Amino acid sequence: QVQLVESGGGLVQAGGSLRLSCAASGRTFSSYTMGWFRQAPGKERELVAAISRSGSNTYHAEAVKGRFTISRDNAENTGYLQMNNLKPEDTAVYYCATARLSNSWSLRLSEDEYNYWGQGTQVTVSS
Prior knowledge:
By secondary structure, the protein is mainly beta. It is globular and about 45 Å long. Strands 2, 4, 5, 6, 9, 10 and 11 form a 7-stranded mixed sheet that branches. It contains no helices and 11 strands.
């Protein structure tokens, strides 16, 4: 069992930045690949970014590429999502999620492949 707690959300003006954190407890964080998802009102939950166990491989959705950066610190059992140049369309509840993997380089890009989820943190970008 892995417990995930997101933090760092809030209200920011367009063009601003936020850094989301995902604190993991209960199991060895480095055994899990991690992803950040978001869900805007009336929309499906979507993958924003994913990172391998080792941190060597990452994926960023086209909508956030060049603006958002996923990272992790396995020693601190924490994952991050740095969000720069935020836009009103980035407004959503952001969730971190983990999936246990046997290798250190693979990513998981489907919501169904993730086993553990945080409670979410609200990000609101005003125009």
